[in-house]
């Protein structure tokens, strides 16, 4: 990819049409809408990243939700996962408010930036390997542009694996044995950021109790301590 600034990279992401299946799905969802959101004009495009460009903390999610980010046009905005995430970020001083409803709701992030390994809402929340590969260069270039990042929080196994791949491509030496995903695990990379693993705050995880607010808060309490 050609060198870009962070705003230029986001513009390129929003214009992306690399994955025919994802393009068709995100645009179909935007046309048909969900009944409770029929008055909304859905975003229906790839998702730009969001946050403080000088951030020391990078949060990496999976992909926008069909009626969350794909509707509102902002990461983790307008769905239950976002409610769970921003409440925690607010408690630890990374967000100015605990809710995220739409792009113009006044939410601001401080010292934290949010991205995802896939920028379009995938059917069943399951991107293919090819779709992950198509989006990966955006993530890799974002890591290059976010020069102050000291801690990376990977939300879920797929995000964790994408982080390991990106770090290796940047020439960073991974610990041995190779890091494995597990909630709350922390890995230190030689000449690189700390990598912190967390379960994704999806409804599947939070409603079953696999991820509680206390568990999630503990991750960001540790992040705050690192800083």
General description of the model:
This protein has 227 residues and is an alpha/beta fold. It has a single domain, classed as 3-Layer(aba) Sandwich (Uracil-DNA Glycosylase, subunit E), CATH 3.40.470.10. It has helices at residues 6-14, 20-32, 69-72, 80-91, 129-145, 157-169, 203-206, 213-226; strands at 50-51, 57-61, 112-116, 151-155, 186-188, 194-198. Strand 5 and strand 6 form a beta hairpin. The longest helix is centred in the middle third of the chain and has 17 residues, at 129-145. It is globular.
Largest sheet: 6 strands, mixed
Mean pLDDT: 95
What percent strand?
5-15%
Q: What is the number of E strands?
A: 6
Tell me the distance between the termini.
32 Å
Q: CATH homologous superfamily name? A: Uracil-DNA glycosylase-like domain
Helical percentage: 25-40%
**Assigned CATH class:** Alpha Beta
Strand order of the largest sheet: 1-3-2-4-6-5
Question: What is Rg?
Answer: 17 Å
Which stretches are poorly predicted, pLDDT < 50 over at least 5 residues?
A: none
Tell me the layout of helices and strands:
Layout: H1 6-14, H2 20-32, E1 50-51, E2 57-61, H3 69-72, H4 80-91, E3 112-116, H5 129-145, E4 151-155, H6 157-169, E5 186-188, E6 194-198, H7 203-206, H8 213-226
Parallel strand pairs: 2-3, 2-4, 4-6
Antiparallel strand pairs: 1-3, 5-6
Features:
alpha/beta, Uracil-DNA Glycosylase, subunit E, 227 residues, 8 helices
Please give a quick description of this structure.
The chain has 227 residues and is α/β, with parallel strands linked by helices. It contains eight helices and six strands; from the N terminus they run H-H-E-E-H-H-E-H-E-H-E-E-H-H.
């Amino acid at each position: 990819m050609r060198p870009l600034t962070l705003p230029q990279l986001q513009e390129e992401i929003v214009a992306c049409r690399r994955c025919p299946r994802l393009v068709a799905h995100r645009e179909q969802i935007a046309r048909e809408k969900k009944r409770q959101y029929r008055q909304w004009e859905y975003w229906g495009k790839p998702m730009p990243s969001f946050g403080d460009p000088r951030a020391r903390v990078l949060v990496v999610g999976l992909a926008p939700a069909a009626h969350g980010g794909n509707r509102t046009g902002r990461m983790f905005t307008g769905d239950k996962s976002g409610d769970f995430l921003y409440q925690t970020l607010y408690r630890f001083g990374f967000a100015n408010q605990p809710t995220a409803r739409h792009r113009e709701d006044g939410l601001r992030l401080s010292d934290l930036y949010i991205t995802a390994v896939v920028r379009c809402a995938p059917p069943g929340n399951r991107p293919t390997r090819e779709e992950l590969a198509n989006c990966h260069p955006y993530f890799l270039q974002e890591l290059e542009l976010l020069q102050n990042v000291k801690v990376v929080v990977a939300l879920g196994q797929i995000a964790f694996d994408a982080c390991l791949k990106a770090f290796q491509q940047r020439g960073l030496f991974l610990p041995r044995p190779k890091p494995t995903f597990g909630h709350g695990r922390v890995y230190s990379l030689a000449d690189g950021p700390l990598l912190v693993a967390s379960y994704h705050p999806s409804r599947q995880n939070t409603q079953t109790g696999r991820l509680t607010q206390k568990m999630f808060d503990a991750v960001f309490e540790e992040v705050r301590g690192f800083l």
